[in-house]
Amino acid sequence: MTPLDHAHAAMEASPEDDAARLRFYDRLAGSELFLMLEAEPEGDRIRPALFPVEGQTFALVFDREERLTRFAEGAAPYAALSGRALAGMLAGQGIGLGVNLGVAPSSILIEAGSVDWLAATLEAAPEEVEERPEQLAAPAGLPEGLLTALDARLATAEGLARMAYLVAATYAGGRRGHLMAFVDPLPGAEPSLARAIGDALTFSGVEAGSLDVGFFRASDPVAARLARVGLRFDLPEAPKAEQLPGAAPGMDPDAPPRLR
Questions:
Q1: pTM here?
Q2: Residues 252, 32: contact at Cβ < 8 Å?
Q3: Which of 11, 77, 78, 197 has the most C-beta neighbours closer than 10 Å?
Q4: Which residues have C-beta within 8 Å of that of residue 52, sequence separation ≥ 6?
């Protein structure tokens, strides 16, 4: 059972639960997916293998490479993409997603309209501001669903930062909010981390909620204050160099592959 299997099972067990449905789509968007191709990629251009089902067209993706191999009954060309990049690539193309078809408990057909909805939901970009917290305290009053979504999202952010702390913050002028503070982020990873937190908030089902994101060095004096009062999240260590995301088409969210 993979994380996507578990999210799918929870959605199926409670079909009227919007929060469970959102958690499934959050997990799908945050997962590395293996897209079956008609042929090997040509640079940044890929041609998905498309299958007609009941008058609709679907691309096939799997959350484990071995599941794709099992479906194809042998080796098959593929591109490894984030769910976010895949949704953006397919949006408006009239193409749905067949996820883990016939090879996993999370086997599901997602129609093109739902793919378009997912891409639109993920489009919102964080707003960048320059503020520094003046007071920090332990987080309080946050919904359990949001904490679960944050934990799941950060579990997929291998090597992008050493750790993160969730705190309540008060800024100059008296504004108050909650802050996810990343310590020692990988240079250039800040936008990806901010998007991950924004996605977790979006798919948690919290209405009209907001969550600030900040980046600090371990040598910064505020880091010790964060450690004293914050809820700590440890991010997984980076995979070995030959396994780093970006080696396959689609894993760089700022340079997704193009259809051809």
A1: 0.77
A2: no
A3: 78
A4: 58
